[in-house]
Amino acid sequence: MQKIAALCFDGVEDEELVDAAKDVLAGCERIEAWCAYGDSAERLVAAALDRHHAPHPPPPGHANLDAEQASAIAARGREILADAGFTAAPRTLSGRDAGHALADASDPNVLLILASGHRRERGPKSVGHVARFVIDHARGPVLLLRLR
After folding, report:
1. Secondary element (H or E) of residue 112
2. Burial of 11 (0-12, 13-18, 19+ CB in 10 A)
3. pTM, whole model, 2 decimals?
4. pLDDT computed for residue 148 by the predictor
5. Complete domains list, the chain, with CATH
């Protein structure tokens, strides 16, 4: 089986993510730089439902990138990987929100690598909502790296 890794970039701690993942990436045959964003159509529907005081799923939170921003972040992730000596292809993913996009794109043969923010809590609240959703719903393995 081919060893494939997908690093999930968010435009915030990307260099630190690559640095923390170097040992894992060294054993991979293929690497992809992923950036996920919420579908703006879903946000527009949520706004319309709000205007009519109708119930709807919670908003996507801070994952309000658009396709152009996500493409730029994925391309920058590819550059950071190249600077670290790894060849990668950029890929953008869209869904109801970033967590759904990542979980939907997950594959049993692809290791998803994502960063955990600087939370000090323990237990379920020790990771952000996107990471928590991906951990719970991904169809393949997930490596969560705690960054400093």
Report:
1. strand 110-116
2. middle
3. 0.79
4. 74
5. 4-146 (3.40.50.620)
